[in-house]
Structures are given as C-alpha cells and as structure tokens.
Amino acid sequence: MTITYPLNTQLFFHDGSEVIDLVQKRFVHPMLELHSFDLPPAPALSNKLYLVPTTDPAIADASVDPIFGPQPSALSELPDVDAFSRAFVIGLIEIWAGKRPAMQIARSCHRSVHSKLQNYGKSLTADLPKIRKIYIAQPIEGVIESTVTLRIKDRVRSLILRFEGVDKRWICTELFLL
User: Fold this and answer.
1) Is 54 domain-assigned?
2) Does some domain include residue 49?
3) Which domain holds residue 134?
4) Which Pfam family, any one, appears in the UniProt record (predicted)?
5) Inside any domain, residue 111
6) Span 83-123, pLDDT tens digits
7) Does residue 37 sit within a domain?
8) What's the total number of domains in the chain?
9) Which residues contact 149 (CB under 8 A, 6 or more apart)?
C-alpha cells in the first residue's frame, strides 16, 4: 500500500515575489498495511433544535468545560415530565408554607431560582396557594415550560417554570410568580 502526497512547487524571484506553480507533483510514500482503516459512516446532520444548558447566573465564572460541564440529556433519559413537575410544584408550596426547608429542592434548581422561591415565599406566608391546573409544554426536546394556575384566597395567580434536562435530571432554570 502506498500513500500519495500532493506537492506544490513554488518559484521565488529576487524581487521578493512568489509564484506557486499550479501543476502538482506527486510524492509516493510506501506504508505497511497493519490496520484496516474502515471508518464508521459519519452521522447524518439534522435540522433539529437541541438544548444548550443554561449557565447559572448566580455563578460569576461563566466558562463551562465542554466535557465535564453540564451535558444535555435526551428525553428518554429523564424522569417522567408530569410526575416531576407536579412534585416540584407541591414542594414549592410546602416550602412557602414552612413545612419543608428550601434546601430540599436546591438540587433541582439554579441558585438564582432558589433565591427567587425563598423571596416569593416571604410574600405568601399568610395565604397558602392551592393548585388549580398544571399546563406543560415542550418547545424542544429536553426543555419543559410549565404554567401552574394557583388560587390564593380569591385571586388566581400563575406560576411559570422552565425545566431543562441536564445530566439525566430536570433543573429549574426560571421561576416567575405573576
């Protein structure tokens, strides 16, 4: 077996200019065939949107290692969407009621979201919300946008949550109480 390398010939002139000859000469190098070089076919590229994990704004250093940093997970690797979102919302309400410490839910949300839920809880200490309905939408694979309608006394308020599937678990990246 031999490998052929193309070589371009270059001409240099005394005035400093350079001309590259377009005719290519071939250099043949002998090589022993020790391994077969059958490469697997390249995966086909798709036009599908994919998740780029959101960095936590509470952390000043936004440089994330591409190998050891957060990795997006496929929907098949993540827990059940309905059960997780319901358990997360119930956990939020229990935190606001003072029946559960906020650190129990800290693993499932960014630091900025964790501080928001503590602040919202201070404003809702007297009146506990009751869940009316949970609406779940999935704009792209690995992302859930959930809207929860809550009844607080005579008012109806909306709790908006965004979950991203990262490292085979759901992470709450946004939380708004309207």
Assistant:
1) no
2) no
3) 75-177
4) DUF6459
5) yes
6) 999 999 999 888 888 888 888 888 888 888 888 887 777 66
7) no
8) 1
9) 131, 132, 133, 135, 156, 157, 158, 159
Q: At what angle do helices 81-97 and 111-123 cross, to 10 degrees?
A: 50
CATH value at residue 91:
3.10.450.100
117 and 130 Cβ atoms separated by less than 8 Å: no
Please give the structure tokens belonging to residue 100. 């559960």
What 3 state SS string does the chain have? CEEEEEEEEEEECCCCCEEEEEEEEEEEEECCCCCCCCCCCCCCCCCCCCCCCCCCCCCCCCCCCCCCCCCECCHHHCCCHHHHHHHHHHHHHHHHHCCCCHHHHHHHECHHHHHHHHHHHHHCCCCCCEEEEEEEECCCCCEEEEEEEEEECCEEEEEEEEEEEECCEEEEEEEEEC
Cβ contact 129:150 at 8 Å:
yes
pTM over 0.70: no
Amino acid identity, position 10: Q
Six-digit token pair at 67?
A: 């190998």
